[in-house]
């Protein structure tokens, strides 16, 4: 299981992905090379769509 860093905390990539908007993840899936790149890209598109920071629960 891959690990990613967000807000200076480390998470399992699969756990954080389960909290993401699937319509957004589908748009960026092919544009990233690493799980961390994917998360970083997701943070940008999430903010663009919702106007707020992605919150991990």
Radius of gyration using CA atoms only? 10 Å
Please write the string of helix (H) and strand (E) elements.
Answer: EEHHH
Tally of structural domains: 1
Shape by Cα distribution? globular
Binned strand content: 5-15%
Number of strands: 2
- pLDDT averaged over residues: 94
- Give the low-pLDDT segments: none
Query: How many strands, which pairing sense, and closed or not: the largest β-sheet?
Result: 2 strands, antiparallel
Briefly note the structural class of the backbone: alpha+beta
The number of helical runs is 3
Distance between the termini: 19 Å
What spatial order of strands do you see in the largest sheet?
Answer: 1-2
Helix amount = 40-55%
Q: Main traits of this protein?
A:
57 residues, alpha+beta, 14% strand
Please provide a written account of the structure.
The chain has one domain (3-50). The two termini are 19 Å apart. 49% of the residues lie in helices and 14% in strands. The chain has a two-stranded antiparallel sheet. It has three helices and two strands. It has helices at 13-17, 22-28, 35-50; strands at 3-6, 9-12. By secondary structure, the protein is of the alpha+beta class.
Strand and helix map with partners:
Layout: E1 3-6, E2 9-12, H1 13-17, H2 22-28, H3 35-50
Antiparallel strand pairs: 1-2
Question: What's a concise summary of this model?
Answer:
With 57 residues, this protein is an alpha+beta fold.
């Amino acid at each position: 299981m891959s690990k990613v860093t967000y807000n200076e905390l480390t998470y399992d990539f699969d756990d954080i992905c389960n909290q993401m908007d699937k319509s957004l993840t589908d748009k960026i899936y092919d544009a990233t090379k690493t799980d961390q790149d994917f998360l970083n890209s997701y943070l940008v598109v999430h903010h663009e769509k919702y106007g707020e920071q992605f919150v991990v629960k």
